[in-house]
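Quick one, tokens below. Sequence please?
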């Protein structure tokens, strides 16, 4: 699936969240015109090898928070593109309080493939401190309305927000699985230029996570959500080109998803070390070998630093059940408070 992103910075947003500045994140100073959107579609199509499976995505604002007439205009514009054969479906991001029965009825007339709900957290205090325009109740309501209309939905989570903690992040990951979301996107909070968080950071009122702190939480969320049957479509904030320079502080990395998977692989090797000793022979296929090698061999290098010797032997099918090992390392890493609940969720999936 190829996605053509159309950014509508802050369009439809009723308030500014402390972490957000879409102008810094996208590099755009205004909302694109209709002609600019058509041109952007053609620009992306020129790069796609597969032009048969293309979706148009409206990101960067609160799509269903737009005035109804304007939301209709964008949906009708998308339909022009779909009818011309340049795309097959529409997806967008929005805030949960802007999902209502009336708006769901409007959406039902269009080929909506995914509504990404910007939940960010399932903790009331975190939502309040982030200046989110909704509470936890609105997240559940939005999900239920979309389920009833049979419109697929995803949930966007963030870690490291003001008032956040590992326990709250784990709880949010569990709720994503319970809600049976189609997808989930996670990114650790970074401080963007000209955001409220930047002022808080410079005033000493906010301390961002470092990369290690972020990864230590993200890998657990990744295992819970992915083993819970929810597709993780991205880990880490998506920034293009020079917009990377708008990150003032925080755990930004262009390959955050790979780093998270590398951390999972290392945790599994630590378990195997306890069972097999320092010399670990893995009978694996090529895909599993790459998983335990890591981004720029970082898994093997770190394992060596910890006294492990990892030896690969080629096999048509891997001897290891990665899913079961991921469950084991996850449950062992959690506080007793979460162990039984998370174990029960994973057993059900």
């Amino acid at each position: 699936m190829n996605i053509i992103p159309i950014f509508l910075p802050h369009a439809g947003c009723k308030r500014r969240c402390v972490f957000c500045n879409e102008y810094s994140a996208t590099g755009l100073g205004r909302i694109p015109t209709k002609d600019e959107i058509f041109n952007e579609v053609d620009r992306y199509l020129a790069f796609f090898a597969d032009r048969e499976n293309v979706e148009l995505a409206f990101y960067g604002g609160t799509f269903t928070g737009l005035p109804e007439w304007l939301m209709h205009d964008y949906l009708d514009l998308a339909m022009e593109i779909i009818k011309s054969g340049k795309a097959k479906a529409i997806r967008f991001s929005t805030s949960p309080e802007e999902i209502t029965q009336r708006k769901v009825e409007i959406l039902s007339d269009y080929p909506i493939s995914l509504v990404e709900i910007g939940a960010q957290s399932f903790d009331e205090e975190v939502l309040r401190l982030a200046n989110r325009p909704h509470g936890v109740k609105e997240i559940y309501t939005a999900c239920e309305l979309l389920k009833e209309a049979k419109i697929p939905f995803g949930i966007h989570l963030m870690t490291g927000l003001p008032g956040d903690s590992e326990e709250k992040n784990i709880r949010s990951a569990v709720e994503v699985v319970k809600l049976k979301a189609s997808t989930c996107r996670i990114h650790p909070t970074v401080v963007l230029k000209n955001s409220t968080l930047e002022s808080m950071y410079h005033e000493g009122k906010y301390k961002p996570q470092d990369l290690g702190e972020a990864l230590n939480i993200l890998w657990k969320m990744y295992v819970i959500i992915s083993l819970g049957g929810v597709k993780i479509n991205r880990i880490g904030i998506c920034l293009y080109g020079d917009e990377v320079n708008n990150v003032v502080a925080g755990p930004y990395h262009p390959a955050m998803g790979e780093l998270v998977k590398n951390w999972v692989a290392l945790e599994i090797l630590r378990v195997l070390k306890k069972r097999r000793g320092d010399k670990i022979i893995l009978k694996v296929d090529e895909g599993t070998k790459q998983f335990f090698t890591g981004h720029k061999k970082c898994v093997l290098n770190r394992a060596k630093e910890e006294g492990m010797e990892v030896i690969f032997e080629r096999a048509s099918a891997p001897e290891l059940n990665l899913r079961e090992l991921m469950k084991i390392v996850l449950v062992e890493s959690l506080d007793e408070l979460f162990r039984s609940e998370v174990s029960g969720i994973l057993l059900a999936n």
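The longest helix spans residues 256-276. The chain has 14 helices and eleven strands.
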